[in-house]
């Protein structure tokens, strides 16, 4: 393979990731994956670097996974949670970020309920001339790039555990099912999977799946079966209960009947089909509980494990690239 170069100081979106960049992440994550299986699960790569986790919105997987990834690389880690911070005294987001900058932050991992906050912090750091890399850990409905990359790594390693690469997904049919409209995970996955040459099919009710999503290069279905027909992979998304109060779906029961992924419904897929979910999961709503726990069909635990290696790769790549 020709030499590939990494030129990003921030990871805010997958919309402009090239095939080469996706492959650099896959290869780097694959080498860090080996570290996670060693007796000594730690390397000195980021010794004395400071990673700050700025999570303005709740998280289980992403926050823990970035923290563990940083620790496996021997970085120091500071975790921030709004409930126990001076945000409640009126401190702004940017002043919070500048406070961690003054403590010597080298990288900031940012999650916020509003789209654009990681971008705003990255811009502020650049304007100050500071060499701080910003990683978007999920912003509003916009993007969740590290989730998209760990999903990509999970898909590729499920095909070839030793040599994950984008071309493994070329021509594969991947169905993404559920609340696409409000999903930052769907947006990041759409960008990376279309870039890999996968055939992406979206399925959900019209209130949660506007036709304009076809502009990404995906096929849009307002019923489940055409999306599942011969699919190689099915990614199901969390039904966001807060949407119920907006009357965007008739009822959870009806939603499960029409768009819930069950053992029965995946009979339409390829025999070797695998099912993914970014979590958190509403068991029995977007996916049946037995299917979620079936290790021969579900890649959900692999997604969580992949997340550590992929986030190690991102922290390493970002830290290695200076302005
Ligand atoms: N997939 C994901 O972002 O999960 P958390 O909200 O638990 O981080």
Give the radius of gyration.
Answer: 19 Å
CATH topology of the largest domain: Rossmann fold
Q: How are helices and strands ordered from N to C?
A: HEHEHEHEHEHEEHEHEHH
Quantity of strands, as a count = 9
Q: Helix share of residues?
A: 25-40%
CATH architecture of the largest domain: 3-Layer(aba) Sandwich
Low-pLDDT runs of 5+ residues are none
Shape: globular
When the domains are counted, the total is 2
Report the bound ligands by name, code or SMILES: phosphoric acid mono(formamide)ester
CATH class of the largest domain reads Alpha Beta
Mean pLDDT metric: 95
State the major sheet: 5 strands, parallel
Count of separate DSSP helical elements: 10
Could you name the CATH homologous superfamily of the largest domain?
Aspartate/ornithine carbamoyltransferase
Layout of helices and strands, plus pairs?
Blueprint: H1 19-36, E1 50-55, H2 61-72, E2 76-80, H3 93-102, E3 107-112, H4 117-127, E4 133-139, H5 145-159, E5 173-177, H6 184-195, E6 199-203, E7 219-221, H7 225-228, E8 233-236, H8 252-259, E9 274-276, H9 289-292, H10 300-320
Parallel strand pairs: 1-2, 1-3, 3-4, 5-6, 5-8, 6-7, 8-9
Helix pairs in contact: 1-5, 1-10, 2-10, 3-4, 5-6, 5-10
Bound molecules: phosphoric acid mono(formamide)ester (CP).
